[in-house]
Amino acid sequence: MYEIPTLDTSYQKPAAIAVLTSGGDSPGMNPAIRGVVRAALHQGIKVFGINKGYSGLIIGDMWEMNSASVTNIVQRGGTLLKSDRCLAFKDPAVRHQAAEILREKGIEALLVIGGDGSLTGAHLLARESDIRVLGLPGTIDNDIYGTDDTIGFDTAVNTALEAIDKIRDTALSHESLFLVEVMGRNSGFIATHVGIACGAEMIVVPEYEVQVDAISFQLANNRAQGKGSSGIIVVAEGPVPGLTYNLARQLEQHEQKPKVCILGHIQRGGSPSGHDRILASCLGASAVDYLCAGYNDIMIGVRQGKITETPLQQVIEKGKQLDPALFQRALLLHK
Ligand code: F6P
């Protein structure tokens, strides 16, 4: 459970707020919305749900939510409010229009649940308008600075693990080598965590160059140690589509016969884990407290078990890096 900060929530209580989910959806967005709605209503604040992220905001597609609007969603994957990647929001004129729409409806503050692109939009809107904007880290990638965990990461890791444990059965039966691709265009958090937990023979992440010779050597070494010739290599998808198939072709030149399995979007779906439900609920409700205490232009995250705030500017500028020591530890475990 998380330590919740004590804030003076009577300082700058808004009359009405809005909430949206943006970017790639992540399991736990629903409990986060529920946390926001229930905490706001408890404070006597009106809450509007915006459909389809910033795309809905810029056309004023929103509805007033009540306690029943969020009933029975804590266990559901996806997002009740739907999501979108809205490129138009990169345009300052469009953000100006979004602020106008919120003002017209008497909405003083906006809560944005999403990943780095969505939080960048939140920061720009906060900086350029009188709307107060707070972010919540909602992405399976866990690549957000200012929080140890993002909403959805734990579920995505467990979804991938469940699939890989099954692949391991058939890999063992047929003595086959599998390259299993997990999500993570720019970061290897999912791959590293999944790789450790499934006992992968090797992990490939965007942060480090792929060493085909080293993989081949590792596989040969495993055989020499009597570990058999089956194996699982967990590969983060990386920025360029097709990376895992390329790697398979390169390994074929080293006399390996890998099969490729792309896990894809199943990692974004499914019922959120207990961990993600608790994280999302606490972050959603705390975001309302931070708003009522007068905060603006921050992201609410969790660090060392404590709910805490980080300026959105820092969140965007710093980005979270994969811990090299953890990655090295992961590789060592596979030897
Ligand atoms: O941002 C989360 C994420 O799931 C990444 O891990 C993945 O690279 C990307 O979204 C896929 O996005 P899309 O569904 O738009 O292709």
Report on the structure:
By secondary structure, this protein is an alpha/beta fold. It has two domains: 16-152 and 272-318, Rossmann fold (3-Layer(aba) Sandwich); 154-268, Rossmann fold. It has eleven helices and eleven strands. The protein has helices at residues 29-42, 53-57, 92-104, 116-128, 153-174, 189-198, 212-224, 243-252, 274-292, 312-318, 324-333; strands at residues 16-21, 46-50, 62-65, 109-114, 132-137, 177-182, 202-204, 231-236, 258-262, 298-303, 306-311. It has a seven-stranded mixed sheet, with helices on both faces. α7 (212-224) links the parallel β7 and β8 (231-236). The mean pLDDT is 96. Bound molecules: 6-O-phosphono-beta-D-fructofuranose. 6-O-phosphono-beta-D-fructofuranose (F6P) binds next to loops.
State the helix count. Answer: 11
CATH class of the largest domain, please? Alpha Beta
Read across the widest sheet, the strand sequence of neighbours is: 3-2-1-4-5-10-11
Number of domains: 2
What about the largest sheet? Answer: 7 strands, mixed
